[in-house]
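RECORD TYPE: protein structure
NAME: Tryptophan--tRNA ligase
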Amino acid sequence: MEERKKIIFSGVKPSGDLTLGNYLGAIKNWVNLQEEYDCYFCVVDLHAITVKQEPKELRRRTLEILSIYIASGIVPEKNTLFIQSHVSAHSEASWLLNCNSYMGELGRMTQFKDKSQKYGESIGAGLFTYPVLMAADILLYNADLVPVGIDQKQHLELSRDIAERFNRVYSPTFTVPDAYIPTFGAKIMDLQDPSKKMSKSEENPNGYILIMDPPEVIRKKVSRAVTDSIGVVNYTDDQPGVKNLINILSSIKGVPAEDIVKSYEGLGYAELKRDVADSIVSELEPIQNKVRDLMNDKTYLEEIYKKGADKANYVAMKTLRKMQKKIGLIPR
Ligand code: AQP
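PREDICTED:
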């Protein structure tokens, strides 16, 4: 009998234009995993609306992210590519799991704590329950593995807790998922403030590189990246700006940081920045060209996301029905 392929679920939210952090921490790694796993790659638009979105921009970004997935090398025929809001089971399962989650565990999420500092009392309730929707996304497909950057590790651990609790209370229902954190590029930092992660909702555009930034903009942003006055290329926490540049290079080239450091003996930050900019441009330029082509072919994109939604819906509904039945809801 043919062994079942292990299942992967992952997604990116269209809350802003995607950064190099989203690419290196998530999408680039998916490309390598698609052969070995049965993959569900989702544009998680319901997560994006946890903060205010301009409707027209949200629509554009949703399709652009789908295009970025494909342009980065995710093959639509081999994987299930879909838009989260097209599969209503995500919202329904999220409610059922909300009723099995605790305020205390959600209040401990560092992303919520960080964001609540920014929004204060007017923070949206959706930002509080966001990790439960994320658990629903993952558990509906019985994902074995969830490739994410380090920033999402805590949310994934909560998904595991929620799955284990449901399994204990109502009998085994969900696969308990594992995080898959990439060896290189798991946390790309802000170019202007390397103590915080590169984020698409950051206000200072010099802090991030967008996947769709033109080459000259990429070069300018890298040349302005904050370093230090030490002047020697070292991979150490005392030089967080330089460490971040090495991490970017290491992630794009797939070479360990120590090897990169060795190759800069006797060289300075100018050479390092030049090489980092060159490597980002050569990695992103072909992707950008394909994205532009795909964005001009809305019929093709529609075909992909409709097919994806049909397939995802079938699997997700099966799990949702199981959940409803175990909880005691009467089947129609
Ligand atoms: N800086 C980063 N380095 C490595 N991985 C990262 N990811 C995000 N930023 C970095 C990974 O990208 C995937 C998708 O993330 P998301 O869009 O769902 O949410 P996020 O983690 O909250 O990303 P942002 O860019 O920081 O969005 P905003 O600013 O809107 O909150 C995840 O796997 C994440 O780990």
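COMMENT: The chain has two domains: 7-185+298-327, 205-292.
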